[in-house]
Amino acid sequence: MGHSHDHHGHHHHHHHIDPEAGDRQVAFAVAINLLLTVAQIIGGVVSGSIALIADAVHNFSDAISLVIAFFARKIARRPADARMTFGYGRAEMVAALVNYTTLIVISLYLAWEGIARLIDPPAIQGWTVVIVAGIALVIDLATALLTLRLSKESANIRAAFIHNLSDALGSLAVIVGGTLVILYDWRLVDPIITLMIAGYILYLAATEIGPVIRNLMLASPDGHDAEDLLEHIQEEEGVAAAHHLHLWQMTEHEAALQVHLVVSDPDWPAAMDIRNRVRAMLVAKGISHVTLEIERASAACPNAPLIGH
Predict the structure, then answer these.
(1) Tens digits of per-residue pLDDT, 169-213?
(2) What is the pTM of this model?
(3) Which family does it belong to (predicted)?
(4) Integer angstrom CA distances of residue 302 from 293, 296, 298, 308
(5) Same domain, 112 and 183
(6) How many domains does the chain have?
(7) Domain range enclosing 114
(8) Mind listing the pLDDT tens digit for each residue in 225-256?
(9) Contacts with 213 (C-beta within 8 Å, 6 or more apart), sequence order
């Protein structure tokens, strides 16, 4: 019983995954995906199927995304130092940005190729396509399982996980296409599936890139409203005003806030008490890094904006 309870605990506090074990899973996933890419490209060239090559590219992007994710995970775990005072947590976001950008470029290229094939569909060896895509499907599902647990705690690994799932769908589509070619010699199905895969990659990358860019632009974290927090700060007893508020996402799981507090009471112990209350209130709201600057009402910043500098 105790054991199953512990397992539930695992679900809620994501930080229990041993980082080294996580790295090993990612490394293994990379290896099988790279092998698969080679197999699919050879299969695509031999059989003349561009859908198979599209699937291979998708797989290669998985492997690359996992390689980037792998190194970004390692970098992100480094502690803050004098050169990087905020730490290295954003490495994963930079990695995700690179990743999605490449995917967008690749999918546009595949769409172009697919359209060219629609105009002049070549003959395809269906059996080769079905067998290679079948192997791909098994490997995609295995990789997805390898990265499933890690994906719950990191946008970076989640990107890789989503690639893998969509890859499995891609392989499935290629299998269907190959089967139709074997049964009915329906040549158009290959470029059609290529376009579907390309469109899907494009859609995924385009939707996922937004939050990553927001994070890199130091946007306010989801679930926290800067104006709302400012109101709460100003409502605290003894706070005459507050300004220069900055609210941003420190790492994927930590929000940070800094603000100037104007206290009406020039008495130092009272000011400290106000500061502690404001800090406690913000921490209770889930803001882990709080920096407060105390100013006396008589000497506050003139004409300071409430939010930003």
Answers:
(1) 778 888 888 888 888 878 788 888 888 888 888 888 888 889 889
(2) 0.68
(3) Belongs to the cation diffusion facilitator (CDF) transporter (TC 2.A.4) family. SLC30A subfamily.
(4) 15, 12, 10, 14
(5) yes
(6) 2
(7) 23-217
(8) 889 999 999 998 888 889 999 999 877 678 89
(9) 97
